[in-house]
Amino acid sequence: MLSTAAQHNAAQSDLAFQRCINPNCAATYETMSIRTSCDRCGDLLDIAYDWDRAAVPGQLSDFEAMWSQRNNPVRFSGVWRFHELLPFAPQSKIVTVGEGQTLLQQADEVAKYVGLNPGQLHLQYEGMNPSGSFKDNGMCAAVTHAGMMEAQRAACASTGNTSASLALYCSATRAMKAVIFIGSGKISYGKLSQALDYGALTVQIAGDFDDAMIRVKEIAKKLGIYLVNSVNPFRLEGQKTIMFRVLEALRWEVPDWIVVPGGNLGNSSAFGKAFSELYQHGLIDRIPRLAVINARGANTLHELVQKHGVKWNGGNVSMEPITQYNESMDRDGKRADTIASAIEINRPVNLNKCLRALEVMDGVVREVDDQQILDAKSQVGAGGFGCEPASAASVAGAKLLRSEGVIAPSDRVVCILTGHELKDPTATVAYHSSDRELFEKTLGSRGVTEANYANRAVPVANELSAIIDAIEQHS
Ligand SMILES: *Cc1c(COP(=O)(O)O)cnc(C)c1O
Ligand SMILES: [Zn+2]
């Protein structure tokens, strides 16, 4: 039974409903229910809308008018500014901490590294979000829905950024208590420190992310805790707006490529949904191509799509190669292992949605190793604001696709930098350090042999002339 307040919310949110992504099932459920999969077939859920009754603007540039309403928190938010394209919540229920004030930067130095013509590479800095990663785009949407459902507690399993984001929203809005599940020893201090500092109940499981994910689902069900992992379809609605802001920054011109790191595959899924809806509304006249980049040490999507030919196939995904692949991982005791901890995931929960996005966006999947990731990361850092290792997989992937000729030098490419540089300073310092022991310990075990673009600190005696010499010599 819904309370009176919840019934009121239900009346306002009747534009939206939840729908099974499998077109052969397409079961629907009301917005005012908490679920992470289809009751009937077990597949993932989308948020769908009765668009005929929604107030979708006639053209994308109509959203520019929203900027003049910046003193309204809902319009200040880089997510809720696009409320008309994710209308599942009444305005009064919207949770925001001012997320989505992110930047698209033309990066010519990085373009040179990737092999693109000047002016053709753009970096979308999602690390500029309040908790330092793109996760805030989705978390404000999930916490909004949790609030509509009057949830008292919200939980997630996390490689770090989801938990940092959930912890921030719960502490900043005082709406509910955050319960986060992390694996042991994997999470970077930048991310762990956020969860602890923001006061989240932090449960450290003896296992890795994939283990924590299985547990959190069990616990959420058993204790009735609201689950905000990216199996939560509301989160992905918020993440659609990353693409809206990219288009906005490009003066509503559609780029040729969107390149994004792939972990649990929520982002890539959300991007596919964003573009397919924009196209359906007639707000864009073509859809960019998508490249999802795995780390080689966590390359399930790459294996399945590029090696086993797994496809969305209009919703008829052949499950056999997927089951076989999962079984072989179990048999071999295969564990995800990459310096890019945010994408260190072997069982991506949004696999089927990502397959759909790959179909909608004529996408490709590639894998890059940790050496390629860290070299690319150093280029991003040298060219501007920097990013965490997982984010740089996008730039390394763009470089790879350029070298294969899949991306042309004249293509307009947007790489999504998913997390802030300061999330994982250990990896950065180890890369640039001349301390070989630190390098070996942090990176050597991951197959990284050289810091090809290291910017080493210059050791110098505490003596004026020696310091002057050192500066003259190195500049
Ligand atoms: C979560 C995360 C990813 C992976 O995104 P998915 O949506 O899970 O594929 C990549 N980079 C960073 C920094 C992240 O926090
Ligand atoms: Zn179903």
Automatic annotation (TrEMBL):
Record-linked InterPro entries: Cys_Synth/Cystath_Beta-Synth, Thr_synthase-like, TrpB-like_PALP, TrpB-like_PALP_sf
Cofactor: pyridoxal 5'-phosphate
Residue positions, PTM N6-(pyridoxal phosphate)lysine: K135
Keywords: Lyase, Pyridoxal phosphate
Domain Tryptophan synthase beta chain-like PALP: residue ranges: 96-419
Source superkingdom: Bacteria
Official protein name in the record: Threonine synthase
Protein source organism: Allorhodopirellula solitaria
Gene: thrC_1
